[in-house]
Amino acid sequence: MKLLKILGGNDGGGIYECEKQFINYWRKKNIEVHAIIVGAGIASLHYKGMVDKFFILPKIKLISKGKTPLKELRNIAIVRKYNISVKSVIDNIDLAEYSAIIYQRHFYTGIASYISKCTKVNAYWHMPLSVRSGFEKKYFRYLANKNNINVIANSKHTKHSIGDISEYYVYPGFNEKRVVSHNTSPYYRIKLSIPENNLVFGIAARINQRKAVHTVIESFIKLSQEYEEIHLMIAGGPLDTEYAKKCISMAEESKNKVHFLGKLEKMAEFYASINVYVHSIMDVEAFGISVAESLGSGLPVIAYSNGGPKEMVIQNYNGWLVNKPNVLEYYQAMKKAVLSRDSIKEMGLNSKKMSKEFRADINAEKFLDIIKINQFMMR
Q1: Do the domains 2-173+359-378 and 177-358 sit in the same CATH topology, yes or no?
Q2: CATH architecture of 2-173+359-378
Q3: 115-164, pLDDT tens digit by residue?
Q4: Are strands 276-278 and 301-304 parallel, antiparallel or unpaired?
Q5: 195-239 confidence digits (pLDDT tens)
Q6: In a 10 Å sphere around its CB, with 0-12 CB exposed, 13-18 middle and 19+ buried, how is residue 74 labelled?
Q7: Domain boundaries, the chain
Q8: Residue 282, class by beta-carbon neighbours within 10 Å (0-12 exposed, 13-18 middle, 19+ buried)?
Q9: Cα–Cα distance between 51 and 70 in angstroms, integer?
């Protein structure tokens, strides 16, 4: 089997982690992986070292993030012109005999479709986002049908949101080695001199408005007025933006209990330092890699009941779900955790049991099975 990935030179976050884990797993199985890398960036440097062979395409110069239909339409026009301009470049690439063409970002559909037609090989869109509007649903379905793309959702939630054009779902997964180590110590708890009997909540996320870090801080401060022996650790950055400064300012009077750790590399030490993970978010999360990592670390989780995290957290079994991502709901969920202290260890064990389904290696193998099924059906 030989696979062609279409990757973004500036990929980051969950998309980058998924690509890295899947590619590494496939290559360990002696599957050859080639890549078309769109644009230069930090991720492109890493991708070049991960794959057997790579080709570089120019960057797509999008003018916005496409958060509204109008902005999305403007980006669609840019991508159409881009696809036409790179066809001659793609024609000069030595496209080997692939078993599948795989990509995540929907802006790469045109490239994947063109290569699919040239090589007569199935193209798969591993869809990394849930459908959030009627416009997106119509557009994504049109894109997949017009270009004869196989849509693989990244969760049951995403599969449901896009509808019947997605037959399968494959979780992006998490890297168990990144979050679990036999020699891991509760480094940050020790560094901050937090007593062993204190309950520590934790957040690991990019500090921006969408991640709703301010909401959890406000909820925690409210809770800390009732319970003294609790702490909140926040792993992530940047810490120099206006939003981050606002969050730090909010916690000023509780700075001995709210700890900003910045961006961390050794996540296992962070997860080992907390008792309960809080997945802060303002809207729907398609998957939630930090939730999966927390399960793998053996932690109970507090998460929003809409989106992918709902597939990983069962109320009062391995965590608590909030019906609305607001101050009151997070406060009530964290209070339940405090009142359930005697059950937290058992709930963490339940998380660990559930985590296998969300591991990257399990899902990378599942993706291969889908490719094999489709190859068999085409014979």
Answers
A1: yes
A2: 3-Layer(aba) Sandwich (3.40)
A3: 999 999 999 999 998 888 888 899 899 999 999 999 999 999 999 999 99
A4: parallel
A5: 999 999 999 999 999 999 999 999 999 999 999 999 999 999 999
A6: middle
A7: 2-173+359-378, 177-358
A8: middle
A9: 37
Closest residue by Cα to residue 301 from 314, 282, 289, 285? 314
Q: What strands lie across the sheet with 2-8, from one edge to the other? A: 53-57, 32-38, 2-8, 100-103, 123-127, 150-153, 166-169
82: amino acid identity, one letter? Y
Q: Helix 13-28 vs helix 289-296: angle between axes, to the nearest 10 degrees?
A: 60
Letter string b/e over residues 344-353, b meaning 16 or more CB atoms within 10 A of that residue's CB? beebbebbbe
> Is the CATH number 3.40.50.2000 carried by domain 177-358?
yes
Picking from 296, 340, 338, the residue whose alpha carbon sits closest to that of residue 316 is 340
106: which DSSP letter?
G
CA triple 45-49-52, angle to 5 deg: 130
The residue behind tokens 């750790």 is 261
Q: What is the pLDDT of residue 260?
A: 97
